[in-house]
# Entry
Amino acid sequence: MVRVVGENIEPGIYNFKDAIKIAYDLELDLVEISPTANPPVCKVIDYKKFLYEQKRKQKEIKAKSAKIVVKEIRLGPQTDDHDFLFKLNHAKKFLLDGAKVKVDVFFKGRTIIYKEQGESMLLKFAEALFEVGKPEMMPKLEGKRMMMIIAPKK
# Structure
C-alpha cells in the first residue's frame, strides 16, 4: 500500500500495482517521495522533467552566488612613498570593485631583520584604506613574507 499524490490524480491510498497502473495510464513515472512515512508517499510525475527542473534550479543558484576575488599587492620592507601611493591607489580601485586585497611584504635575503618596518608598512596601508576597506586579518609573518587581507566595506 502506498499513498499516491500528483496532478490530475485523486489523492489516496492505493495498492502498489494499482499505483503503477495509474502512472502508466497517464504515461508518467511513479516516484517515491517519502519512504519513511506510513504508508510511503509516491508522486506521479514526469521524472525526466523533474530532473531537468532541479538541474536548472541548481545552475540558477550557482549563478546568483557571489564569487570572491582576491587581488594581491606586493611591497618590500623599504618601498618608497611614491610606489606605496601607486599601489595604494590600485588597492582602493580593487576594493571599490568589490574584491578582497591581499597585501604582502616580501623580505629578500637579509631584509628579514626589518620585520617591524614591514609590519608598520602594512598597518599604514590598512589605515590609508580605512574608508573603503577593513582588515580581515592583521599582519602575520609566514616564512619570508608578512601578509594581511583587507576586505571591502559594504
Observations:
- The longest strand covers residues 133-142.
